[in-house]
Amino acid sequence: MSYEVKSLNEECGIFGVWGHADAASVTYFGLHSLQHRGQEGAGIVANNRGKLHGHRELGLLSEVFKDERQLAQLQGDAAIGHVRYATAGNGSVDNIQPFLFKFFDGQVALAHNGNLTNARSLRTSLEKDGAIFHSNSDTEILMHLIRRSKKTAFIDRLKEALLQVKGGFAYILMKEDCMIAALDPNGFRPLAIGRMVNGAYVIASETCALEVIGAEFIRDVQPGEIVMVSDQGIEIDTYTSETQHAICAMEYVYFARPDSNIAGVNVHTARKNMGRRLAEESPISADMVIGVPNSSLSAASGYAEASGIPYELGLVKNQYIARTFIQPTQELREQGVRMKLSAVRGVVEGKKVILVDDSIVRGTTSRRIVRLLREAGAKEVHVRIASPPLKYPCFYGIDIQTRKELIAANHTVAEIQECIGADSLEFLSEEGLIEAIGLDFDAPYSGLCMAYFNGDYPTPLYDYEEKYRASLEEQTSFF
User: Fold this and answer.
1) Distance of alpha carbon 361 from its chain centroid, rounded?
2) Segment (H or E) for 115
3) Residues 149 and 285 in one domain
4) Residue 201 domain flag
5) Same domain, 171 and 278
6) Would you name the residues annotated as active-site residues?
7) In this structure, what CATH number is given to the domain that contains residue 86?
8) Do 42 and 158 belong to one domain?
9) pTM (whole model) above 0.90
């Protein structure tokens, strides 16, 4: 999430609408509310009476469509769109979605959120059979599998392809006569269905996108489901019955917008509950509670309420900072943090501060924020993290895929505390996180994927198994 100071990134946001006269503009507004899910590139494909045409480019959505004519040219009453942050594939325009495929028997557009754990094996097999790939994104694999199927009906070919891809995926496809969405058997990534006043159907990565365009939430796409939308209405089907909820816990902790609901649970409420539980588990005497903008503010307010310690605005975020990239020197990196965050000296000077954050990844950002507070005169800085220690990589669509990137993988809490320069450091327990979110599925961890914290992956890792085993043997020092 480039607008945050943290180094943890979700892969993508997807959006689709069927049955609206200005579908491309609706998709633009929907994607704008999903911009936090990816800032590397964006694209929209519109359906104009069965003819698909689109525009995609590197950059933020507003940069990609900075010329109003680019959006105006996307005529049609249906469209799908995508904002991207890469976990599989490099940062070239060839990897920007939606992909638009033109075959002798029709056109298909495809957008994907997630990461396939058997992509390498599938791609190797397909290339040996003569397949030619135009990108190095794992998304393109699905279309090759669809085209290789011997079945007649497109929906049957899609079902066969979905049974071959493994890992985390939320797909939206568009054909001349319909829009189709599909979710992996574990539902790692959220996907919601809505309906606009004029009857147009909408599918989006988060419910916040439905709110922005005035669509009423209907239901979530369930694991293993296929949703087909056409002029005849909406139809729900399944491609597998072997499903089990394992919603990414980090969606609630960090990735999703606080005004989104996932599986019926409001993200802000879940984060506030995390803060309350954290205050119960790790109390400390202090003058104030402050949160790291923006994703930690809900948890900080929950901690303050439960502890009875006043909540204060001790850190201010520059809302207009442009995307920043890795700076070549330590001095410039420090300046980058100061551009994004400022400590409020008049609030924290001479005070004992409880700093609430949602997670610690590499530790470098936490160390810089603690230093900011001390330079602003904070007497003590006690860090409280509203999630358990991140110890294991993710292979379902988050860009942390080795343990060497995670400070908690090889260091104790006491060592991390020393590294970031805090007076104390405590994390939320796994049980506390599960209960704070409050899902009620008959599945391990109440339907959450907790692999980042305990290494218990809900699926086989396929191509990543060897990489994961090797990462378990890595020893990395952050000091």
Assistant:
1) 15
2) strand 106-116
3) no
4) yes
5) no
6) 12
7) 3.60.20.10
8) yes
9) yes
Burial 136-167 (b: 16+ CB within 10 A, else e): ebbbbbbbbbbebbeeeebbebbbbbbeebbb
- Give the residue numbers spanning the domain of 18: 12-243
Cite the DSSP H helix spans in 163-283: 207-212, 249-250, 267-281
Is there a domain that residue 48 lies in? yes
Tokens of 332: 């410039």
Task: Find the CATH number of the domain harbouring 372.
Answer: 3.40.50.2020
Q: In which residue are the tokens 């929907």 written?
A: 30
User: 392-415 burial, b for 16+ CB within 10 Å, e for fewer?
Assistant: bbbbbbbbbbebebbbbbebeeeb
Q: Does 55 share its domain with 193?
A: yes
pLDDT tens sequence across 133-167 = 998 889 999 999 999 999 999 999 999 999 999 99
Whole-number Cα distances in Å, 264 to 116, 191, 218, 221, 256: 26, 12, 11, 12, 13
- Listed residue (418, 433, 438) closest to 479, CA to CA: 418
Burial class (CB in 10 A: 0-12, 13-18, 19+), 43: buried
CA distance 58 to 84: 9
Query: Considering only CA atoms, which of 60, 4, 54 is closest in space to residue 35?
Result: 60
% of the chain exceeding 90 in pLDDT: 83
Q: Is the residue at 257 inside a domain?
A: no
Instruction: Say what the pLDDT of residue 400 is.
Output: 75
Helices (H), 33-139: 61-64, 68-72, 119-128
User: Percent helix, strand, coil in the chain (nearest 5)?
Assistant: 35, 25, 40
Place of tokens 């699905």: 142
Contact between 395 and 401 (Cβ < 8 Å): yes
Q: Are the CB atoms for 398 and 87 separated by under 8 Å?
A: yes
Q: How confident is the model at residue 432 (pLDDT cuts 50, 70, 90)?
A: very high
Q: Is residue 17 in a domain? A: yes
Give, rounded to a whole angstrom, the gap between the first and last alpha carbons of the chain.
Answer: 25
Task: Output the six-digit token pair for 419.
Answer: 């590294």
Tell me, yes or no, whether 214 and 275 share the same domain. no
Q: How many domains does the chain have?
A: 2
Query: Do 199 and 305 share a domain, yes or no?
Result: no
Same domain, 384 and 351: yes
Give the Cα separation of 196 and 8 in Å (integer).
33
Question: For 460, phi and psi rounded to 5 degrees?
Answer: -60, 155
